[in-house]
Amino acid sequence: MTADHDTPTTSTSAAGLPVLAEEITAYYERDNEDGRLRKGSGRLEFWRTQDVLRRLLPPAPAKVLDVGGGSGVHAQWLAADGYDVELLDPVPLHVERAARLPGVTAHVGDARALRLPDESADVVLLLGPLYHLPEREDRVRALGEARRVVRPGGVVVAATINRFAGLHDTLSTGLYFDPDRRPQIESAARDGRMRPTGGDKSLFTTAYFHQPADVLDEFAAAGLAPSGQYGVEGAAWLMGDVSAWLDDPGRRESVLRAVRQTESEPSLLGVSGHLLTAGGRR
């Protein structure tokens, strides 16, 4: 795929839906995602996601459907907490790894066409699918499927990448000043679409970066009533020493506590790299 394409060429699945773009599958088949959240500054995203979910989810045992759950980074601790966890993901390598985790069942699936009965889960997590669906219609379809399978009174939680995450991240690391990368960065900040260029200058795979208010609109379009939004990393992810702080248990707890203070402050939601939006059936 080249930088001037708005969306990748896709084929059609048995459900009549476009399948994942090849470069998305290739990106995740490198098998880097699991490790990314377990080391360095990626641990802030992991621990903060865990922190927010533990406050939002009903008590265990409850049925959790982890849609787009990757290799099971979050499914693992959810199962250890006593939840009945079913994971689905479009990448076979992820499903193979997740299926080895105690207490987790895993299978290949599409967030837009869940092969599950109506009202069959207490919790539906979409911690990855929405930012790999560039078209709003597909994102609303995925949220609509979450609404269909969640029980009345259940919880749907979706993760999105904030619109200016790429801009903030590359300014922090200095990559913004690379003239070969800057067009990707500024394009994503302009319209939300991350367009991979291929090669070692490509910053990410095909993705869509949301404005926080747009997530609320997509929830509403899918028949979900939003109940809260939570900045995952806050501003802490942009601070150069954050990885070292996370190495120290005392400082780590201080960082998590500090980010929690501003997690739902409207003026700061877009500063975070990732956003969690929670809701349920109307």
TrEMBL record:
Q: What is this protein called?
A: Class I SAM-dependent methyltransferase
Query: What Pfam families does UniProt report for this protein, alphabetically?
Result: Methyltransf_11 (PF08241)
Q: What is the lineage of its organism?
A: Bacteria, Bacillati, Actinomycetota, Actinomycetes, Kitasatosporales
| CDD domains in the record | AdoMet_MTases
- Annotated source species: Streptomyces sp. R35
GO MF terms on file? Answer: 2-polyprenyl-6-hydroxyphenol methylase activity; 3-demethylubiquinol 3-O-methyltransferase activity
E.C. number(s) listed in UniProt:
2.1.1.222, 2.1.1.64
Q: Which GO terms describe its biological process?
A: methylation
Keyword set, alphabetical order: Methyltransferase, S-adenosyl-L-methionine, Transferase
